[in-house]
Amino acid sequence: MIRKSLILASLSAATLLLSGCDWMPGKPTEADKPVIRTTITNFETLWTNQCSGCHGADGRWGPARPMNDPLYLAIVDKDYVTKVISDGVPNSLMPPYAIHNGGSMTDEQIKDVVDGMWKHWANPTATQGMSLPSIQGDLGTASRGEKLFKTYCSECHGDDGNGGKAGSVVDSTFLSLVSDQALRSAIICGRIDLGMPNYAGYAGGHKHGGRSKLAPLNDSQISDIVAWLASHRVTYPGQPYPNTTTLDVTAVVTTPATD
Questions:
Q1: pTM for this structure?
Q2: 172 vs 28, 175, 231, 233, 236, CA distance in Å?
Q3: Which residues in the chain are classed under CATH 1.10.760.10?
Q4: Burial code of 118-136, b = ≥16 C-beta within 10 A, e = fewer?
Q5: What percent of the chain has pLDDT over 90?
């Protein structure tokens, strides 16, 4: 009987000792536990971790297209954006993000990002009554695009596109990093964060100075300008490179003079 009591007392003491370990100094708290990336479903966290580096912390002011743009979200739909995120864009800096395409996001996470964009940034009233161009268009004609570019774009980018106050848009390195679709999106939507006017000539709610008397660009005109810009692409962007394969002068090896 005494032995049984001792065993029970020992078990009780062990239980108390183990339960006391929950309060031991240095034990990780619930908040310290590592988060498995594929379990994150919060839009703000997903955007910060996966998208902000290129598209900006609040969907603007990044090197890539601002997604926090009611006009852009009005000309695309969720299926289109989901496909872009999932599959990426070939021959551009936009990689595929879906796990089945080698990326790091589940289909649920991609859906959460897309839904979050529309929830936080879409504004249908901002484009109400506007005749919106199509996000995708037919192939254009470069010769027509050149004339249109001089009329609609030269004030900021120069007559030949090599740069005015807004810089070059025919630079071979730049064109190697963007797709035709990215060019079309830029012409339609402008850059809401940088003051580039949209297809209708508006920037920041006001008609841009050089576009004040011009009609909005239509689908075919936008395609023509894209075709002209794309015609400046080259096989090896960034050339001319220094010629390091031949030397015009025979190299001379000298040795220090000795006394």
A1: 0.77
A2: 53, 5, 10, 6, 8
A3: 37-127, 142-230
A4: eeebbeeeebeeeeebebe
A5: 63
Model confidence pLDDT, tens digit, residues 22-51: 566 666 676 666 666 778 889 999 999 999
From CA 208, how far away is CA 178, in angstroms rounded?
Answer: 25
Residues 37-127: name the CATH superfamily: Cytochrome c-like domain (1.10.760.10)
CATH of domain 142-230: 1.10.760.10
User: Residue 64 carries which DSSP code?
Assistant: S
By the 8 A CB rule, do 81 and 117 touch?
A: yes
Instruction: Identify whether the C-beta of residue 208 lies closer than 8 Å to the C-beta of residue 152.
Output: no
Mean per-residue pLDDT pooled into runs of 10, the chain (259 residues): 60 56 64 69 94 95 95 97 96 92 95 97 92 92 97 93 89 93 96 93 85 93 98 86 57 52
Spatial contact of 95 and 88, defined as CB atoms under 8 Å apart: yes
CA-CA distance, 99 to 37, in Å (whole number)? 12
Contacts of 187 (CB under 8 A, 6+ apart): 199, 217, 222, 225, 226
Q: Tell which residue, 139, 241, 122, 234, has the closest CA to residue 181.
A: 139
pLDDT tens digits for range 67-82: 999 999 999 999 999 9
Nearest to 228 by CA among 135, 133, 152: 152
Are 144 and 223 in contact, with CB atoms under 8 Å apart? no
* Total Cβ atoms within 10 A of residue 236: 9
Q: What are the contacts of 86-93 at 24+ separation with CB within 8 A?
A: 86/110, 89/179, 89/181, 89/182, 90/179, 91/179, 92/177, 92/178, 92/179, 92/182, 93/54, 93/64, 93/177, 93/178
